[in-house]
């Protein structure tokens, strides 16, 4: 997506491959599947070997961290089609799940179940058209220090570009540690991507049910406070566009949720399933 434009502008390509893998395997695990293998496609006008090596190194890192084999891929040179130094990147992953381990929220989720949230590492890979508009409005360059008024320990010493390019977190190990523990059942799983909370969470819920999300139950990352302030973006739009610091959600019974909290030390309960359809905040 348009996160690539930032990588081009910064001439920084070492983590964009992690994003590519993460956006595939984080979707696969919402079904309870374990990723098996990944293939990539890299297209450019003229191959820059150093640039391509950096991209592939990120793909390898993403596959290694998600226990997924990089089987191969394709590199295409199309002179005149892409701008100088630009490329396009795509890929796909294949996973496997036994029938008794398939996660089916529409079948299993009930009123009173809770939402176990796992933190994101940053903006991840969605919402960059809006993020780039905010960057333009801020007047800051990509190599400018991230504003101290909004920063914390996670942004200290980093530039605006580095904060925005922070690679998407991989959730394979976390989901596997809980769902395959033999001690708990994940009833529903949500990869919080484009559409944020409002569009992604309802997809896993049975008809007639919704969720109530507890504001303040997790740390909203500095980059989101900065974008909302500089861009003068309404809170509802922020939650509909970005992950707001929660990149993955597991829906579980209150009893089983304790297993997730024990096995994923940075997990928090961020809400519960209610009778009213939709996503509400309190």
TrEMBL record:
CDD domains: PurM
Name of the featured protein: Phosphoribosylformylglycinamidine cyclo-ligase
Keyword match 4Fe-4S: no
Entry's family note: Belongs to the AIR synthase family.
GO molecular function: ATP binding; phosphoribosylamine-glycine ligase activity; phosphoribosylformylglycinamidine cyclo-ligase activity
PANTHER family: TRIFUNCTIONAL PURINE BIOSYNTHETIC PROTEIN ADENOSINE-3, TRIFUNCTIONAL PURINE BIOSYNTHETIC PROTEIN ADENOSINE-3-RELATED
Catalytic activity: 2-formamido-N(1)-(5-O-phospho-beta-D-ribosyl)acetamidine + ATP = 5-amino-1-(5-phospho-beta-D-ribosyl)imidazole + ADP + phosphate + H(+)
Cited SUPFAM superfamilies: PurM C-terminal domain-like (SSF56042), PurM N-terminal domain-like (SSF55326)
EC number(s) per entry: 6.3.3.1
Keyword vocabulary terms for this entry: ATP-binding, Cytoplasm, Ligase, Nucleotide-binding, Purine biosynthesis
Annotated PurM-like C-terminal domain residues: 111-280
Enzyme class: ligase
Record GO cellular component, one term: cytosol
Segments forming domain PurM-like N-terminal: 6-97
Record localization: Cytoplasm
InterPro entries reported for this sequence: PurM-like_C_dom (IPR010918), PurM-like_C_sf (IPR036676), PurM-like_N (IPR016188), PurM-like_N_sf (IPR036921), PurM_cligase (IPR004733)
Entries under Gene3D superfamilies matching the protein: PurM-like C-terminal domain (3.90.650.10), PurM-like, N-terminal domain (3.30.1330.10)
GO biological process, any: adenine biosynthetic process
Pathway(s) this gene product operates in, as recorded in its UniProt entry: Purine metabolism; IMP biosynthesis via de novo pathway; 5-amino-1-(5-phospho-D-ribosyl)imidazole from N(2)-formyl-N(1)-(5-phospho-D-ribosyl)glycinamide: step 2/2
């Amino acid at each position: 997506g348009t996160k690539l434009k930032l990588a081009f502008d910064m001439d920084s390509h070492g983590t964009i491959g992690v994003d590519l893998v993460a956006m595939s395997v984080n979707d696969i695990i919402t079904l309870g599947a374990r990723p098996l293998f990944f293939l990539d496609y890299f297209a450019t006008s003229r191959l820059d070997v150093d640039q391509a090596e950096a991209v592939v190194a990120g793909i390898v890192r993403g596959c290694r961290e998600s226990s997924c084999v990089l089987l191969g891929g394709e590199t295409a040179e199309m002179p005149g089609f892409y701008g100088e130094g630009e490329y396009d990147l795509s890929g796909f992953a294949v996973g496997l799940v036994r029938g008794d381990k398939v996660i089916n929220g529409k079948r299993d989720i009930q009123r009173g179940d809770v939402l176990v949230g796992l933190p994101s590492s940053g903006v991840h890979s969605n919402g960059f058209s809006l993020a780039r508009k905010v960057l333009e409005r801020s007047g800051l360059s990509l190599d400018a220090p991230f504003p101290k008024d909004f920063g914390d320990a996670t942004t200290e010493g980093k530039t605006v570009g580095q904060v925005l390019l922070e690679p998407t977190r991989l959730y394979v190990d976390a989901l596997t540690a809980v769902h395959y523990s033999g001690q708990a059942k994940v009833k529903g799983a949500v990869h919080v991507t484009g559409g944020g909370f409002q569009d992604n969470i309802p997809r896993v819920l049975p008809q007639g049910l919704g969720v109530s999300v507890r504001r303040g139950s997790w740390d909203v990352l500095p980059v989101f406070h900065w974008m909302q302030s500089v861009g003068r973006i309404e809170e509802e739009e922020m939650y509909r566009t970005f992950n707001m610091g929660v990149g993955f959600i597991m829906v579980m019974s209150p009893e089983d949720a304790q297993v997730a909290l024990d096995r994923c030390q940075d997990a928090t309960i961020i809400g519960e399933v209610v009778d009213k359809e939709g996503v509400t905040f309190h």
